[in-house]
Design brief:
- With about 325 residues, the chain is mainly alpha-helical.
- The chain contains 15 helices and 2 strands.
- The chain has a two-stranded antiparallel sheet with strand order 1-2.
- Helix 10 packs antiparallel against helix 15 (about 305-335).
- The radius of gyration is 23 Å and the shape is globular.
- About 30% of the residues are buried.
Amino acid sequence: MAIKLCCFPKDPLEDVDTWGESVDKVLGSKAGQIAFREFLKSEYSEENILFWLACEEYKKIKNTPEMISSANRIYSEFVETEAPKQINIDCGTREKITNNISQPTLTSFDAAQKLIYSLMARDCYPRFLKSDVYQGLLRRADSRAASGQYCTGATCSHIIDLIQIRMDVSCKTSHVDHQETKIIWSTNETHLSGESLKAVLSRKCGRVAFRDFLKSEFCEENLDFWLTCEEFKTIDSPGQLTWRARSIYEEFIRTESPKEINVDFYTRDAIAQNLQQPSPSCFAVAQKKIYSLMENDAFPRFIQSEYYKDMFDAASVQRNIRKHRKAFRSKSNENLV
């Protein structure tokens, strides 16, 4: 019997009204984390929740090598001076972390995490409750409750869409390393990708649109994993292959990993067994399962969504522009003759 895989076991907006009780209620909910992060992003301070979440994951680590690796990553990303996502902490706390980073412990970031938590609770959280982000979700939740319509599992509501994250002709995407950049629709990518997942994934702007849709359903890790596997299969160096395989395992496969994908125990265990001597095909089974999940579950909803419509509209605009330019050039050439 096939098991239906889904993103949420219950309506993601079911407890949205409880977010007004405390920042802990927000941070304790996956949907709350996403909504709060989008609000902080609008205030250019999303590094606060990213750091706090990274610290929560860090404290779950069980082995020393992984702890050292993770500690250095958190330090270089959030703590050191001029880090890409430098958090706002006092010099004393920053210096103490710096002095101890060569021999980290599970409590290395506790003081900094506490400061950032206090900043979010005292400064950001009250504004979040008054924001369009939260108030819009609250109204949507109230409307559902009144009508008796709830959304669970694979049919969960587009929360980020409600927060007015919309596709534009300039599409926003994340690379495999998930650092967001702007991608402009180029002339060779403006045709509608077609009504198949393979066609959509073959074009950059198709991938952008589909990832934004998956993000609205809180399962963008599926596409991120699939794209990462495509990149992994192109690696030639055995040393790099081993390192990258372990990195993918830690990010997507390991139980309770940051972007854990939904695959069965046997597939997960087989990958773990092959990590010592990985081959370019060691993720092939998992990649195939995730592709099938996207194709059969998410993609049919995508082609009915506003994300797909926006992609089509943007493509149509570009085609019309090229058509008019071609006609104008033709007419100009005729006049010259």
